[in-house]
Amino acid sequence: ASGAGVGKGRAERLEGRGLDDGLVGEADEIARKAGMPVANTSGTREHRRLMIDELTRQAFAGALAGESEAK
Questions:
Q1: Per-residue pLDDT reduced to its tens digit, 7-46
Q2: What are the two backbone dihedrals, phi and then psi, of residue 32, each rounded to the nearest 5 degrees?
Q3: Residue 30 CB partners (closer than 8 Å, separation 6+)
């Protein structure tokens, strides 16, 4: 995994782990800490920080759902 933009060592903490709620929470934390919303777009920085959290959770929820359907 590249981990570009996430910070050295952060993305690597997720490699090789099973996809579960613990991994989703940790990935969410990494994305939230790495996110740097700028002030030159619509919405507040806080709103965009919340969107990082929500979009990360939705992405992993979709991956979890797809994994259970594949079994």
A1: 556 667 777 777 777 878 888 888 888 877 777 667 788 8
A2: -65, -45
A3: 6, 7, 10, 11, 13, 14
Say how far apart CA 23 and CA 27 lie, in whole Å: 6
Q: What is the pTM of this model?
A: 0.57
Alpha-carbon span 49 to 57, nearest angstrom: 13
d(CA 26, CA 24): 5
Length of the chain: 71
For residues 19 and 60, the answer to whether their CB atoms sit within 8 Å is: yes
Q: Which residues contact 60 (CB under 8 A, 6 or more apart)?
A: 19, 23, 24, 27, 28
Output the CA torsion sign for 71, 65, 2, 24. Answer: negative
Q: Which two tokens stand for residue 18?
A: 């099973």
